[in-house]
Design a protein that fits this description.
- The chain is mainly alpha-helical.
- It has one domain (38-159, 166-302): ABC transporter involved in vitamin B12 uptake, BtuC (Orthogonal Bundle), CATH 1.10.3470.10.
- It has 13 helices and no strands.
- The protein has helices at residues 2-14, 22-54, 66-88, 91-117, 121-145, 148-155, 170-186, 188-194, 198-203, 208-230, 236-248, 253-278, 285-302.
- The longest helix is centred in the N-terminal third of the chain and has 33 residues, at 22-54.
- One of its GO terms (biological process) is siderophore-iron import into cell.
């Protein structure tokens, strides 16, 4: 998988490179490639982590409302500070503050839900969907009462676009993602125990509540990174997690986490190369990914694979 990703990256960087200003073109391509890989790793790893905590392969952070929570946070910031005030904030400090707030809110809201309702899967799904609808409804209401110019700022972060990358956040986003993924991989053994369920994990000496809240904080960090760079993606993580489990045929997180990140990166880089270079932007990758992910979600539900 790593070799395939390296091949795709080489094709992405070198295909159609003319005799003009190669340095400028390579710089633009490298920035976009780094953003795609960062988003892919963040989405893939966060989905595996969340499914481990939820003990369910159908749930993803987006389905449970993490992305909607991020958009609501952006909307509240625009309402409070105004569009000009929000744009005037230092991007790095704003990004880190958003991650901290997201982690605290996610641990409070979703930690309580998962710790108390992990055994009641239908109720957990319903509650997560309701929370997502609530966050989106509040964001929509606030959008209707704000200035149209400020609403445009909110709209720019409300929809996924792999063609729009905030390059100013990229170095910090890459560093945060690398740190979060390293922490998650270091927790692989504890994640393997956590995946056994609450009672077996506690009987084996795992601090179940503490590990669950720590994993949710990592999920919130990774979701914040991916949403800040390209916007919310609902079902992409579901596809990636399914691929990782299907290809690796193991429950070991030391294998699943890298596999999910690599699978996501291959899909994003390969898909963006196909739609951008071969199809001339005749279609949008985010729309195709969401459509395919939605079908896969329905397939899992209809096949009764909620567990």
């Amino acid at each position: 998988m790593a070799l395939l990703l390296a091949l795709l990256a080489a094709v992405w960087m070198l295909q159609g490179l003319g005799p003009g200003n190669r340095g400028f073109i390579l710089g633009l391509r490298a920035t976009k490639l780094a953003a795609l890989v960062t988003v892919a790793v963040a989405v893939g790893v966060s989905t595996i982590l969340f499914q481990t905590v939820a003990a369910n392969r159908v749930l993803t952070p987006s389905i449970m409302g993490f992305d909607a929570l991020y958009v609501l946070l952006q909307t509240v910031l625009v309402i409070t500070l105004g569009g000009a005030g929000l744009v005037g904030l230092p991007p790095g400090a704003k990004f880190l503050a958003e991650i901290a707030v997201m982690s605290a809110l996610a641990a409070t809201l979703f930690g309580t839900l998962l710790l108390r309702g992990a055994r009641d899967v239908p109720r957990m799904i319903l509650t997560g969907v309701i929370l997502g609808v609530l966050f989106r409804s509040v964001s929509g209401f606030l959008g209707r009462i704000m200035d149209p110019n400020e609403f445009a700022v909110v709209q720019s972060v409300s929809f996924a676009s792999f063609n729009r990358v905030d390059a100013t956040l990229l170095p910090l986003a890459m560093a945060v993602t690398a740190l979060a993924v390293a922490l998650a991989w270091r927790m692989s053994a504890r994640l393997d125990v956590l995946a056994l369920g609450r009672d077996p994990a506690v009987s084996l000496g795992l601090a179940h509540r503490g590990v669950t809240l720590a994993v949710l904080a990592l999920v919130a960090v990774l979701v914040s990174v991916s949403t800040a760079l390209v916007g919310p993606v609902a079902f992409f993580g579901l596809i990636v997690a399914g691929l990782a489990h299907g290809l690796m045929r193991t429950a070991a997180h030391a294998v699943l986490l890298p596999a999910a990140g690599l699978s996501a990166a291959i899909l994003l880089v390969g898909g963006q190369w196909l739609f951008e270079r071969q199809l001339g932007q005749a279609a949008t990758l985010s729309v195709v990914v969401e459509f395919a992910g939605g079908l896969f979600f329905l397939y899992l539900l209809l096949k009764g694979r909620i567990r």
